[in-house]
Structure formats: C-alpha cells, structure tokens
C-alpha cells in the first residue's frame, strides 16, 4: 500500500471508530475531531456495558474474532482506555489479512 493509500485507510478507520464511539457514548464530547488522549470512560462516557458492546461491534465491522485477533496481535483488550487506543486497535484489525 502506498503512503497516501495507507494514510487514507488510517483516516477511514479513525472515521469508522469515531462513528462507533459516538453511537455508544453516554455523553459524547462536542469537540471534533476526537482527541486520541480522551478517556473512553471519563471523558467520552462509555460505561462497561457500552464499551463491551462497542468492542463486539468493532470485531463485527472489521470481520475479526476479537479475542483471537487481539491475542494474536499481542493486544490486551483490558488496557484499551483512550480513543487513541481504540483507533490503534481498529488500525491493527484493518491490516489483518482475511
């Protein structure tokens, strides 16, 4: 993938993650774009149920088995705490061959 294609793909992943986060957020921040350091719980308002639902949806949208792929990639899902963490997870999934 060329550099501009990779940048476009990363932007597309971030856009998809933003849409998902806003769909599940209990009190979404008004500021756009969402900053990578925003806490999913404290600043975006994802409670435990919303976060699990969002993660499951993320697996569906990227057509990956969340538990299997995160283990294969060495990603601890329990450590996903910020919007940036979620975007990096989505980017890792989007680069996974299907």
How would you describe the overall organization of this protein?
- The chain is mainly alpha-helical and 98 residues long.
- 57% of the residues lie in helices and 0% in strands.
- It has four helices and no strands.
- The radius of gyration is 13 Å and the shape is globular.
- The model has no long low-confidence stretch (mean pLDDT 88).
Largest sheet: none
Q: Which structural class matches the secondary elements?
A: mainly alpha
The amount of beta strand, in percent, is under 5%
Q: What overall geometry do the principal axes of the alpha carbons give?
A: globular
Write the layout of secondary structure elements.
Layout: H1 3-24, H2 48-61, H3 66-73, H4 83-94
Helix pairs in contact: 1-2, 1-4
At a glance:
This protein has 98 residues and is mainly α.
Keywords:
4 helices, 98 residues, 0% strand, mainly alpha
């Amino acid at each position: 993938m060329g550099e501009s294609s990779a940048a476009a793909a990363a932007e597309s992943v971030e856009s998809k993650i933003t849409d998902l986060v806003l769909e599940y957020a209990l009190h979404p921040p008004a500021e756009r774009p969402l900053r990578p350091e925003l806490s999913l719980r404290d600043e975006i308002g994802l409670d435990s149920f919303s976060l699990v639902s969002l993660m499951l949806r993320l697996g569906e949208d990227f057509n990956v088995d969340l538990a299997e792929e995160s283990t294969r990639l060495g990603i601890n899902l329990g450590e996903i705490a910020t919007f940036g963490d979620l975007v990096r997870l989505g980017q890792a999934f989007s680069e996974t061959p299907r």
